[in-house]
Amino acid sequence: MNMQHPRRARGGRSAWSRVVATLVVGAVAALGGVAFAGSAQAAPSIDTGAWYSLVSWRSKKAVDVAGSSTASGTAVAQWTPTGATNQQFRFVPVAGGYYEVRARHSGLALTIATGSGSLATQSTPAGAATQQFTVAAGSSGRIKLVNRASGLALQVVGASKENGARLEQAADTNANHQQFTLVAQGSAPSPTTPAPTASATPKPSASATPKPTASATPKPTASATPTATAQPTTPPATGAWPTPTSSQKVSATIEISGTKDLGLVRYYGISSGDQAEGQPPMFKLADGAVLRNVILGTGAGDGIHCLGTCTIENVWFEDVGEDAATFKGTAASQTMTINGGGARSASDKVFQHNGPGTFVIKNFQVADIGKLYRSCGNCSKQYARTVVVQNVTITAPAKSLVGINPNLGDKATLSGLTIVGDPSKKIAICDEYKGVTSGEPTKVSSGPSAACGYTPSAIVYR
Fold it and tell me: What is the dihedral of CA 125, 129, 135, 136, to 10 degrees?
């Protein structure tokens, strides 16, 4: 097994980030988005009807919700500015002159526990003091976000300039990694989330992990397959990997039914950590199950087995063993949905499709992999399978994204792909094989076709 963990691609200053200052000045003049008094000590006024990117003064990187996830508890970090909706925030006023800072793509609020060094996440707006901030004046028109519950300032961990560095809070020292430039991104519609009431304020806890509501879970349907021209509704999935809240060694497969939120605990050690065939899965999901917010560490065996329609949301595979997840079941109408999260260090496949039905992979990121998805090429019982890959970021090295068997009726639809670190474009996008029930499948072609539904415009290289 390849135990090497890949380095994150370093985003150099883009043309977008080099003109941040110009954009801010223009936005102030044209939109009236942020008006500052002449003194550096004057508190700025905020246009509560606008979306803003928050760009760190030190790193010139934007505050970013990891993986464009819509799940509560997702990490907030910094990343190269793209103007994507997971880098846009609205300031919602609450009593006492404070603001909630809500992400555009998810509607969730920036949240941070009370202790110094506590890390920022997004969570369901609840009127909590841990979700409320004073917008304080920094230097030269920049701002600082000071948390109501703790009185501490938001900052980039370690004053880092790297992509993926988390956001935390610490004593306000007016340091440059505690100051942010506001860049107006446009007007916001009327809020769809009801304003929190003071009576809803929970007591902040440094160890509390916000739990997403069941209604946030997307309901997969077989008819949800987009066409080859469909565009993703969310930006490319990039961002920091989450920090586990704790770790738990596993000795036997854990069976999941209904909805289970595991609070970003890391589960590990059901296997030795190699890629041998026939390993037990870490989790087995019954038909209709939903698994949220979990990290699979080293020794994850065969990852997750889905026995019918299932949803895997904000799940992270730190060190893929045999496979990250396998879609089983027997019904042609079943759908397995991967929404958010990421996988790395997969010397072979990330996702294996053995049963029939539709496999949806969206808002996901992978790095250092063999293949993202493979429809079984030599299962003893074969089916026509459909795969939908939407809004996925792939960081090299990687061999291919999708492998299907058109002779068995397989179809793939791909859109919103971002490939990082592959300037020669060696990573295959969609490979076609002649599937069999015994022996080895034969590769017959590669590239867009009637079965491999995508266009060159669906791929961005950076």
Answer: -160
